[in-house]
């Protein structure tokens, strides 16, 4: 067996490790940078149904689709929910394209995931990210949030 043959058989970490087994670098790299989870959601008090809006969190950068202060996000945005293996398995609202959800459900990553494509731009080129589709929450009064309800966050037709 030559070295090329050996290398070709090495599976990427997201196929061989559980969420719990990933180290910090692997865990962070699993985020595809889509920004979908940084959009505000509305919950129906009676039914518990959750709907998405295209209103982006105050710390969300609409151009990079990344958090502007990731290290301090919890202190600055108390509603921000850091993902953990436990929360990924229990949250019902994670977008169907979210890499954490896919791995938790035993699915592979899509071609446009930066870990697969080796290109951080493909999540945008494939139309998966929220780039160009958000409004900043600082501009929208809470009583108007219902006017910004969207459904495309739950689409997974980007395979
Ligand atoms: S939805 Fe998942 S993959 Fe997309 S930004 Fe949020 S954590 Fe990352
Ligand atoms: S604080 Fe940062 S990571 Fe959390 S929802 Fe806002 S933009 Fe996203």
TrEMBL record:
Pfam family, one: CxxCxxCC
InterPro entries linked: Puta_zinc/iron-chelating_dom, UCP006173
Listed HAMAP family: UPF0260
PANTHER family assigned: UPF0260 PROTEIN YCGN (PTHR37421)
Record-stated family: Belongs to the UPF0260 family.
Protein name per its UniProtKB record: UPF0260 protein H2509_18070
Organism: Stappia albiluteola
